[in-house]
Amino acid sequence: MNHLIRSSFLILVLAGFAHAKDPRVLEITGDDRKLMATVEFLADKTSELSLKTQATANQSFDWLDIPDDAKAARLKVGELATLPFDLAAFGTTLVEVGAPTVAQNDKGLSVAILATTVKTDLPLKAPVDATGWVFFGRLNVPKPGVTLAPDALTWSSLYLVQPPKVSLDANNLGTKLLVETAAKGNLLRADFPLILRKFDGQKIQRSKDDPIIRAGQYVIVSNFQEPDEKGNVYAEVKVVAAPGN
Fold first, then answer.
1. What residues have CB less than 8 Å from 234, skipping those under 6 apart?
2. pLDDT tens profile 97-133
3. Torsion sign across C-alpha atoms 161, 164, 165, 168
4. What is the DSSP pairing of strand 198-199 with strand 187-190?
């Protein structure tokens, strides 16, 4: 019996360590192409006091690290807010912000709110130690008749950031070489949900079963493919645990 109890306790401890490797992140998206929201992290859905307040970027998708003691959150856009919603105890919570609507609050009163769809059961998340290729970013392609050295090209978009959430090209001036040098071999975080794909030696392979690296997950880049004719660049990565775990 004692052996069984010790074994059960060990399993629970190991499970706790496994969850600890998974950063808690709130992903936010909306119907509009631009979403400027204020996120209030709460102790629970009934709390009136914000543990922490953060603003989202003026874009259609953003993500924020969830404070350790937050179990719920609420979003405000202008004069409207969502009802408080629960946050996943581990991993990612995705909230999709919809159009204004009318609902009942916890006091039974009708109020104007922003509709939300909250998802915590996101499938096919890339596990720690998974390897493959992700979309790293897109280079600005020269106009017809203009020739630039490959390493002089600049970036129009990038999908990995330096921890905690710092752009690899904060001044939008980094060349292909500078950004790739800053990224290669260093700990980075996904700035968008990225599909982890395989490479057969000739081209990137796509499959419906490819796992997703969620925003905020940690990776290390080991290699890059040369850009295609549209300037798209893929990076070879390994998914790693959050620092300190």
1. 133, 134, 135, 136, 197, 199, 204, 224, 225
2. 998 999 887 778 888 999 999 999 887 789 999 999 9
3. negative
4. unpaired
